[in-house]
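Is this the right way to post structure tokens for a design question? Let me know if I should format differently. Anyway, here goes:
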């Protein structure tokens, strides 16, 4: 068998919804367009959906499965002739497919000699539907009488007059600090809008903008005053000043790009300050790797939306992404997936070795950029659950006596760091200590979500620890683990962050911690009622991996529902909260989970403009929100990959 046949063999898949009499079916089809027969093979594939253990297959059988990676083989002696198809039907998945990104993203054939041959793979079709799959940033429709395209909308705006739109600005800074902010703004504007020439030299016909710090303004507050032929901006700090410059840039872009609707003012002012201190965005770089440059661009987009907390999800079952000197295996093994590797292809990452990690130098660069942009980075290392990649790299951290199998909600086997293994604490502290050197932020997030109910049930070391902690099940063990981890972080001057499950078993001290509420809209309020500082990030509205709508043609996940930009925008984090509960509200956060982000146009469709919707809720008082006005401004905001709405194309 020669290798050149493989690019003529294709994988397609279809979801066939069932009815009362028949189950849903998921059908994978390999078409042999080559002129040679193919035999002795198995099909490897992955994508978000998982084949249930109890599934019945017609046309083949499961050879192996790990989470969403699966290998299926036809019956013995099967030969796939030229121009023929081989189909396998599967009657049970962990969930019924609902969107085109749910199914197999990437498949390959493994031939008898053990070689993997990547196959062109078509996105999963819904049977009998010809609707084109949607990708790219969704453009919103709207008309507004608002005087400018500022996003998030400011606290006070009273501008007047009209002049020809300045092509750019010449800045005059009153101090070294103000001068540095102008430089940061120039780099930001050039990176987001290359070639636009927003910041100009003295000889380049820009509108003069005087820039000054004003200690009477709050930290993130700013004030812009417009005159006939100049502008003045004052900021309470470097961050406030930068926000003033960003607002000015947005006013200019709106009046330049939509001159019929917006004009550049000659009088009046904008006085602004945020409603919430925590205006966060999370990025899951474990399910998919984003290069240093992509992360930096994401931070710049965050800054343009006046978001100020970057929750960086650096580890999960699927990968480990941080260089740690003490444990080179973490990145040598844990950062890579591929056929035949300790971590198989997952979520469509393909048979070739794929992945990556952030070197310490890269992290230092990213942290420095974030600081310039007024963004604090909260690193997350997700423990004790979600540790499959970590444990593949450091298997000595397992209890060798554990002899049973448990599976996580995403079907990873035995994926939790074991609180009964003493070496776990030394490893976690060593890793955290190296990371504390890299990340100056006040907070360090330790995950603590989704430990399966059966975790550690057959570990003798865990059972011994349970005799000391009392109770049963994983909660007291996780609580014991978190107490030690939090004590370490507190001793190092950091506040421990975690997902809401950290409160189970009372494992985390309310002092020196914050929790992110994610499972339901009500969950965050409950945490606040219990006295935890809370960041509100309900999956139902703020998980940006959820699809924008219920249609098959929309990409994304659906386990928490779907959330259109309008729904994400309308959500108010503290509706119905008491005054005491509001005291605990730190702010809001969008979460960019990467499971469905199979391509860049999918990323753009899922993240934009919903990122801006969340940013406006974080900044703007609820009574000043207006979706029509927001929609017009959102269409002018930058996206990570610059893909445009491809619905219907
Ligand atoms: C989470 O979505 N597991 C925090």
């Amino acid at each position: 068998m020669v290798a050149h046949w493989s690019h003529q063999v294709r994988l397609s898949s279809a979801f066939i919804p069932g009815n009362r009499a028949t189950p849903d079916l998921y059908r994978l089809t390999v078409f042999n367009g080559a002129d040679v027969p193919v035999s002795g093979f198995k099909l490897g594939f992955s994508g978000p959906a998982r084949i249930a253990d109890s599934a019945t297959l017609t046309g083949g059988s499961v050879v192996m499965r790990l989470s969403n990676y699966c290998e299926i083989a036809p019956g013995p002696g099967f030969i796939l002739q030229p121009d023929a198809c081989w189909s396998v039907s599967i009657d049970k998945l962990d969930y019924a497919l609902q969107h085109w990104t749910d199914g197999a993203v990437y498949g390959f054939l493994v031939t008898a000699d053990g070689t993997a041959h990547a196959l062109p793979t078509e996105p999963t079709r819904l049977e009998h539907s010809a609707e084109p799959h949607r990708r790219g940033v969704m453009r919103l429709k709207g008309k507004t009488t608002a005087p400018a395209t500022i996003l998030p909308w400011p606290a006070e705006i009273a501008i007047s007059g009209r002049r020809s739109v300045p092509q750019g600005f010449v800045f005059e800074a009153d101090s070294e600090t103000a001068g540095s902010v102008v430089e940061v703004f120039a780099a930001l504007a050039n990176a987001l809008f290359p070639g636009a020439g927003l910041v100009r030299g003295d000889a380049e016909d820009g509108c003069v903008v005087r820039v000054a710090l004003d200690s009477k303004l709050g930290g993130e507050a700013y004030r812009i005053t417009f005159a006939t032929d100049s502008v003045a901006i004052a900021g309470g700090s470097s961050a406030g000043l930068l926000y003033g410059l960003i607002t000015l840039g947005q006013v200019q872009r709106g009046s330049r790009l939509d001159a019929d609707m917006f004009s550049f003012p000659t009088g009046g002012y904008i006085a602004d300050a945020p409603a919430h201190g925590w205006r966060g965005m999370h990025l899951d770089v474990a399910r998919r790797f984003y290069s240093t440059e992509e992360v930096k661009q994401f931070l710049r987009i965050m800054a343009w939306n006046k978001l100020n907390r970057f929750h960086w999800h650096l580890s999960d079952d699927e990968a480990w992404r941080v260089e740690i000197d003490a444990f080179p295996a973490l990145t040598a093994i844990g950062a890579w997936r591929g056929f035949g590797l300790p971590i198989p292809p997952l979520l469509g990452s393909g048979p070739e070795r794929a992945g990556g990690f952030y070197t310490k130098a890269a992290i230092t660069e990213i942290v420095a950029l974030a600081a310039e942009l007024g963004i604090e980075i909260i690193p997350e290392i997700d423990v004790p659950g979600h540790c499959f990649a970590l444990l593949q790299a450091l298997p000595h951290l397992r209890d060798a006596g554990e002899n049973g199998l448990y599976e996580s909600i995403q079907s990873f086997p035995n994926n939790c760091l074991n609180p009964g293994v003493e070496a776990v604490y030394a490893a976690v502290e060593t890793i955290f200590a190296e990371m504390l050197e890299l990340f100056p932020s006040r907070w360090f997030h330790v995950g603590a979500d989704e430990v399966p109910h059966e975790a550690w049930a057959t570990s003798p070391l865990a059972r011994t620890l349970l005799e000391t902690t009392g109770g049963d099940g994983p909660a007291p063990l996780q609580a014991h683990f978190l107490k030690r981890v939090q004590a370490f972080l507190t001793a190092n001057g950091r506040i421990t962050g975690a997902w809401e499950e950290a409160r189970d078993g009372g494992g985390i001290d309310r002092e020196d911690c914050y929790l992110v509420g994610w499972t339901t809209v009500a969950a965050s309020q409950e945490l606040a009622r219990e006295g935890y500082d809370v960041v509100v990030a309900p999956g139902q509205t703020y998980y940006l991996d959820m699809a924008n709508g219920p249609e098959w043609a929309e990409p994304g996940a659906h386990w928490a529902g779907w959330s259109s930009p309008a729904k994400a925008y309308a959500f108010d984090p503290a509706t119905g909260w008491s005054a005491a509960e509001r005291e605990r509200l730190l702010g809001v956060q969008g979460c960019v989970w990467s499971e469905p982000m199979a391509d860049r146009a999918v990323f753009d469709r899922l993240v934009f403009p919903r990122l801006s919707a969340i940013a406006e809720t974080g900044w703007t008082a609820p009574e000043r929100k207006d979706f029509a006005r927001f929609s017009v401004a959102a269409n002018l905001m930058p996206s990570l990959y610059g893909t445009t709405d491809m619905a219907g194309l």
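Format looks fine. Someone answered above. Worth noting: The first strand starts at residue 9 and ends at 16. Residues 212 and 234 are 5 Å apart (CA to CA).
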